[in-house]
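Final report, closing paragraph on structural work. Over the funding period we assembled a curated collection of sequence-structure pairs, and we close with a single example.
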Amino acid sequence: MKSIFNFVLLLTAGLAVFVLGNPYYRVFPTNWNQSFYIGLFAFFLGAVVVCRFVPALSGYQAAAYAFLIASLALVVLKTGIFNLPESGSVSRRIALDKLSQFLHIVPVIVVMTLLSRKKLGEIFIQKGKLRQGLIFGLVSFIFFAMISFFIAASTSDLVKSLIVAAPWLLIFVFANATMEELWFRSIFLNNFYPLVGRWGAILITSLVFGISHINATYEFPGGGFVFGLVVFSLGVAGAYTMQKYDSLIGPVLFHAGYDLLIIVPIINSV
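Its predicted structure, as stored:
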């Protein structure tokens, strides 16, 4: 029963941050709402303090701190202090927008992790099983890149435009992949493990990842719910391989690959 309670508790907290607080769409009044973000941060800060001084709750402190990091990232992102000027082609603007998000979120995750006196390896910023991770990541990236190319190949003009836009597309997919693997998964997996076990941690992070994408602003065959199921499945694969290879490297390459399947049609539609 305690594991079920912990599962529901962590899932609810994750949905509050990444669905109610999602900065990419405006479905709820709490989306892109700095007051809500600050409130989330204050709540999780209070939770960390309570868990620190109440022995019975000490086991929840690491998870509460992970949510504190995630909510602080929202607060910093909303300020826009690191936004890059966007101009030029569509692919350039999209890439710079994503890079701006990266510059707001990733440093927060790294600095807050170090401030907690944890090593970056605890959030999978390390080589880990480098050979296996690279093989998985590169094979999956090439696989998704080939599918994206065949999608583009139906229109010769699009192929030419993608070649020109390739540097910006790579910036987009790798900035987004690194940011989301850190933000949605790596800061949570090891901290959830003592509360819900390995597969519980994988399922919670993947459910949050999938549900947070149901209301994505771009179109997907079958609609948002189908897209959410697909993203959930990709999240399971990413979380599993992150733990298996003990590193971000493979999951980031994997994520960057399937992001190509999203960005190529967007470039094709403009």
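The chain has a mean pLDDT of 94. DSSP finds eight helices and no strands in the chain. We thank the funder for supporting this effort.
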